[in-house]
Amino acid sequence: MEGSSEKKLANNKASEVKTFTIPFEADEIKDKISINTINQSFKEKEKIILKAFEFHSAGNIKEAEKYYQYCISKNCNNHMVFANYGSILKSLGRLKEAELYTRKAIELKPNSAKAYYDLGKIHTVTNRLEEAEKLFIKAIEIKPDFSKAYLSLGNIMK
Asked: pTM to 2 decimals?
């Protein structure tokens, strides 16, 4: 009989449920779960951005433009997407749009010498030379060895 009582006692111990307190609230768990979906979304955006860059660097402007537009429509906040899309728009002669997207690139990354330079080039084409001069100077302040900015500044001062 002793053996059967020991078995009963062992079975009771095995069926006991132990609970432990956790060092965070249940709401925090939801936050941690959503981080995974955010990371997946971020990875997907990164793939699309890289594809846009590939098309752009290969000279496939139509496809690059589609991918940049898609990124922007999905609330992408990558300054290079806006800068590159602005560059495409400038090359297509859509200068007002190019200016808007280049300004957004500057807003997202205020220390981007290239974005200031690109905006200066847009202002040069639209004959707003005083603004262009200021933008080239700003690009040079950010990146003192930016030779293209010096050249463009010299050209408009000439």
From this structure: 0.71
CB proximity list for 129: less than 8 A, separation 6 or greater = 123, 156
Phi, psi of 92 (to 5 degrees): -90, 0
Distance (Å, whole) CA 68 – CA 70: 5
Residue in 25, 82, 31, 23 with CA at minimum distance from that of residue 52 = 82
Per-residue model confidence as pLDDT tens digits over 38-50: 454 767 888 888 9
Residues 107 and 110: their CA atoms lie apart, in Å, by 6
Question: What is the token pair recorded at 4?
Answer: 């059967």
Which amino acid is it at 20? Answer: F
Residue partners of 28: CB distance under 8 A and separation at least 6? none
DSSP for 95-145, please give it: HHHHHHHHHHHHHH-TT-HHHHHHHHHHHHHTT-HHHHHHHHHHHHHH-TT
pLDDT digits (tens, 9 = 90+) for 103-116: 999 999 999 999 99
